[in-house]
Specification:
heterodimer, A: about 550 residues, Rossmann fold, Dihydrodipicolinate Reductase, domain 2, 10-stranded mixed β-sheet, 6-stranded parallel β-sheet, 19 helices, B: about 160 residues, mainly alpha, about 65% helix, about 0% strand, globular, Gfo/Idh/MocA-like_OxRdtase_N (chain A)
Chain lengths: ~550, ~160
C-alpha cells in the first residue's frame, strides 16, 4: 500500500496522460479500420444484391465407378497426346521430360498436376495411328501385360474390334466426321476434336447418325465449356446486367511457328512409315508429302484454317454463354499475309457473324434494340491479347477465366448511380474470380494485376484443374451415368455450320446467309458449296 | 539502452511522432485485413519476383492460412505496441522483419518488374525506408517518455527512491 501511495505520489496527471495517450489513438485507428471495411462490405453487398448474379460452377459430372470403360484412340499426334494425358495416360518420354523440367524450375507443376489427377477408371485398349513412330511410341508407354493396348492400322478395324466402348478422335479435320459417324453407327461413343466436321454435307450426316443412335454419346472437344466463369456469365446475361448486347468481339492472336501450325516434321517420316493413302482419304490424291502430313492445318484439303481451327473455339465460347445459335449472315475477309509458305488457308482473318433477330434483353423502350454482331478477328503475326468482350448498352463484360463487368458511362440502367457517383465506369461493378474465396463486387487494380499475370487458372474447389480433363470426364460421365454433354451434336452442328459459312464467305468474297427454318445455307444456289469449301488451290 | 547524450524534448517528441506514425500505419493495415474475411497474401506471395521458391512455399496450401494469420497478428501487435508504447523494441524488430519480407517479395531492383505502385522506385522503396525508420525507433526507445512503459519506469524509479 505504501509503495502504491508513493507510486501515485510520483505519478502526476501529466505522467498519466503521457502513459495512456496511445490508447485513444489505438482506439481511433481501430475504429476507422472497422468503419472502412464495413463501408466497403456495404457497398459490395449493395452491388451483389442489386446485380444479383449467381456465381456458380458448372455442375460436377457424375461418379467414375463401375466397370472400366475401354477406350480406343485414333490419332496420337500433338492433340492426341494431350487428350491421353487428360484421360490419365502419359508417355514415359513426357514424364521424364516433365520431371527434369520440374527439377530445373520448381514452379513447373505439370507433372505434379498430372499425378494428382483423378483416376477416370478407363482402360486404353486400342490405338490407331498411321505413322508407325507414333503408334509404337504409344504402345511402348501404354501397352502392359495387365492392360494390353493393341495397335490397329485401320480406324474401322479399331471401331469394329469389339475391344472398345468409346473412341477419342484426334485426327486431321477431314477425318473427324467419317470416323465419328462410323463409331456412332457401330454403337461406340465418340469424343471428337473440333471442328466437328470438314464439310457442310457431313455435318448433316453426322447429326442424323447421332439422332438415329441415341445410345452412343458424342462429345465435341470444346473444353472451354468447362471454364468456371461461364455459368456465372450466363446468369449475368439472364439478369440483364449488360442490357442489349449489340456487339461481341473475340479473337485469336498468335505470333510463333507453333501457333502458325508450323509443326515439326519427324525425321523418320517416309512412305514406309506412314500409310499415305489412309491419310488422304477423300482428299485430293497427291504424292507423299511429309509437310502435308505434319502441317495439315495449312491446307483446305485436310484442315480449315482459322475458321475451323480457332474461330470455332471462340464462337463456341460465346455460344455457350449466349446460346445465339447459327448466324443469319456471315461475311469474312483476310488473306495469307504473315506466312507465305505455300499454305492456302488464311493467316489473317476477320469474320463478322450477324444475328439480326437476337437480343439479350433491353433497358430501353420496347423495339428500340434488336440484333447483334459477333466479330472474330485473328492474325498469326501478332499476339497482343485483346480478350473477349460482350458489349451491351448498359455494361461490358470481359469473358475469360475471370469475369469482369464495367458499367457503360451512357447506360440507361445505371444512369442514376453513375450520376450519384456510386459507379465509376473505369472500375468494375462486378468481378468473378474463381480462385478467390468470395465474389469481389468492387475490385482493385492490384487484383486485376494479379489476374492478368496469368496466376489464375480454371479451378474446382480451389484446385487448379485442366479443362480438357474436365471435358473428357463429363463425356465419360454421360456414358456411365446418362445426361448430355455440354458440347454435344447440336452445339457441334452450330459450331461446324458457322465455321463452314465463314470458310465459304472467305473463299467467295460473298455474304453467306443461313435459313434457320429450312436449316440450310441459302446463298450461292445451285453451286456445290462443299466443292468451294474444299477447293485446295495454292494461291 | 543507455543514452550517452540525452535528447532534447523536441528530439524525443519527433521520435515519438515517428513511432506513432509507423504504429498507425501497421495497425490500420492489420485491422483492415482482420475485418476482410476474403483477404489473403497468396497473390502477393505467388507473384514474388525475387526468392520465389521461398515465397511460393509460404503461399502453398499447407502454409498460407498460417502465414495470413501470422501476418495479421504481427501487424496488429507491431501497430498496437508502437502506439501504446509497450514492448516497442520487440515490435520494431518484428516490424523490420515484416517490411523486409514485403520488400524482398517485390524488390525494386534494376531490371525487376515493378508491381502496382503509386510512384517510381529504384532499389529503395517505402518499405525499405519504413524499415530503416523502425531501426531508429528501435535504437531510440521513447516509450518511457510517452507510453505505457512510463508506468513501469516510474514505478521502478519510485521503488528505488523508496
Amino acid at each position: 500500500m505504501a509503495t502504491d501511495k508513493k507510486l501515485f505520489a510520483a505519478f502526476s496527471r501529466r505522467d498519466l496522460l503521457k502513459s495512456l495517450a496511445g490508447v485513444p489513438i489505438l482506439g481511433a485507428v481501430w475504429a476507422a479500420g472497422i468503419d472502412t471495411t464495413k463501408k466497403s462490405k456495404l457497398e459490395k453487398d449493395f452491388w451483389l444484391e442489386k446485380l444479383n448474379i449467381k456465381a456458380s460452377a458448372p455442375p460436377a459430372s457424375g461418379p467414375m465407378s463401375g466397370n472400366s470403360l475401354r477406350i480406343g484412340l485414333i490419332g496420337f499426334g500433338i492433340r492426341g497426346e494431350q487428350l491421353m494425358r487428360a484421360l490419365g495416360f502419359a508417355t514415359q518420354e513426357w514424364m521424364e521430360s516433365m520431371a527434369k523440367s520440374a527439377q530445373e524450375d520448381p514452379k513447373d507443376k505439370r507433372l505434379e498436376d498430372f499425378l494428382a489427377q483423378e483416376n477416370l477408371n478407363v482402360k486404353l485398349t486400342a490405338i490407331c495411328d498411321i505413322f508407325d513412330v507414333r503408334a509404337e511410341k504409344a504402345l511402348r508407354s501404354f501397352h502392359t501385360e495387365a492392360n494390353p493396348c493393341k495397335r490397329y492400322t485401320s480406324y474401322l478395324d479399331l471401331i469394329h474390334s469389339g475391344e472398345v466402348d468409346a473412341v477419342i478422335i484426334a485426327t486431321p479435320d477431314h477425318w473427324h466426321a467419317p470416323m465419328a459417324q462410323a463409331a456412332i453407327e457401330a454403337g461406340v461413343h465418340a469424343y471428337i476434336e473440333k471442328p466437328m466436321t470438314h464439310t457442310i454435307e457431313e455435318t448433316y450426316r453426322l447429326r442424323e447418325a447421332v439422332r438415329n443412335h441415341p445410345g452412343s454419346i458424342l462429345a465435341v472437344g470444346h473444353q472451354h465449356r468447362q471454364t468456371l466463369s461461364f455459368l456465372t456469365a450466363q446468369d449475368a446475361i439472364a439478369k440483364n446486367t449488360l442490357g442489349h448486347i449489340s456487339l461481341v468481339v473475340t479473337n485469336t492472336n498468335r505470333n510463333d511457328d507453333n501457333g502458325a501450325w508450323q509443326y515439326e516434321i519427324h525425321p523418320e517420316a517416309s512412305p514406309e512409315t506412314i500409310d499415305w493413302n489412309a491419310f488422304l482419304g477423300a482428299a485430293p490424291q497427291v504424292p507423299f508429302n511429309a509437310e502435308h502430313f505434319f502441317r495439315w492445318r495449312k491446307w483446305w484439303a485436310y484442315g480449315s484454317g482459322l475458321s475451323g481451327d480457332l474461330l470455332t473455339h471462340d464462337y463456341d465460347r460465346v455460344n455457350c454463354v449466349l446460346k445465339m445459335g447459327i448466324p443469319k449472315y456471315v461475311t469474312a475477309s483476310g488473306g495469307i499475309y504473315t506466312h507465305r509458305d505455300g499454305r492456302n488457308v488464311p493467316d489473317v482473318m476477320q469474320v463478322n457473324m450477324d444475328f439480326p433477330d437476337f437480343s439479350t434483353g433491353s433497358s430501353q423502350e420496347d423495339g428500340k434494340e434488336k440484333g447483334m454482331t459477333l466479330v472474330y478477328s485473328a492474325t498469326l503475326g501478332n499476339q497482343f491479347d485483346r480478350g473477349t468482350v460482350l458489349m451491351g448498352h448498359d455494361a461490358s463484360m470481359e469473358l475469360g477465366n475471370i469475369l469482369t463487368i464495367y458499367a457503360d458511362p451512357r447506360s440507361t440502367k445505371y444512369k442514376d448511380l453513375i450520376k450519384e457517383g456510386r459507379i465509376d465506369p473505369q472500375v468494375p461493378i462486378y468481378q468473378y474470380d474463381p480462385t478467390a474465396e468470395g465474389v469481389d463486387a468492387v475490385t482493385s487494380a492490384t487484383a486485376k494485376y494479379f489476374a492478368n499475370k496469368g496466376l489464375l487458372w480454371t479451378y474446382r474447389d480451389g484446385k487448379r484443374v485442366d479443362s480438357t480433363f474436365l471435358h473428357i470426364r463429363e463425356w465419360l460421365s454421360c456414358i456411365r451415368n446418362g445426361g448430355n454433354p455440354s458440347c454435344g451434336i447440336d452445339e457441334g452442328f452450330e459450331e461446324a455450320i458457322t465455321a463452314h459459312m465463314a470458310g465459304l464467305s472467305y473463299k467467295t468474297g460473298r455474304k453467306i446467309e443461313w435459313d434457320p427454318v429450312a436449316e440450310r445455307i441459302i446463298s450461292l444456289p445451285g453451286e456445290d458449296l462443299d466443292a468451294i469449301l474444299l477447293e485446295n488451290l495454292v494461291i | 539502452m543507455t543514452q550517452t547524450s540525452p535528447l532534447t524534448s523536441t528530439q524525443t517528441g519527433v521520435l515519438v511522432l515517428l513511432r506513432l506514425l509507423i504504429g498507425w500505419h501497421f495497425l490500420y493495415e492489420g485491422v483492415i485485413k482482420l475485418y476482410s474475411p476474403g483477404w489473403t497474401a497468396k497473390g502477393y506471395l505467388l507473384s514474388a519476383t525475387y526468392m520465389e521458391s521461398f515465397f511460393h512455399w509460404l503461399a502453398s496450401e499447407s502454409m498460407i492460412s498460417t502465414i495470413d494469420t501470422l501476418n495479421i497478428a504481427a501487424l496488429l501487435f507491431v501497430g498496437a505496441a508502437l502506439i501504446l508504447g509497450f514492448k516497442t523494441q520487440l515490435a520494431s524488430l518484428i516490424g523490420v522483419g515484416l517490411l523486409l519480407l514485403y520488400y524482398f517479395a517485390h524488390p525494386p531492383f534494376p531490371g525487376y518488374p515493378l508491381g502496382p505502385a503509386e510512384g517510381s522506385y529504384w532499389i529503395i522503396n517505402k518499405n525499405l525506408i519504413e524499415a530503416a525508420a523502425l531501426l531508429v525507433v528501435f535504437l531510440f526507445p521513447t516509450s518511457v517518455s510517452f507510453g505505457l512503459e512510463r508506468f513501469f519506469a516510474k514505478r521502478s524509479l519510485s521503488s528505488q527512491t523508496h
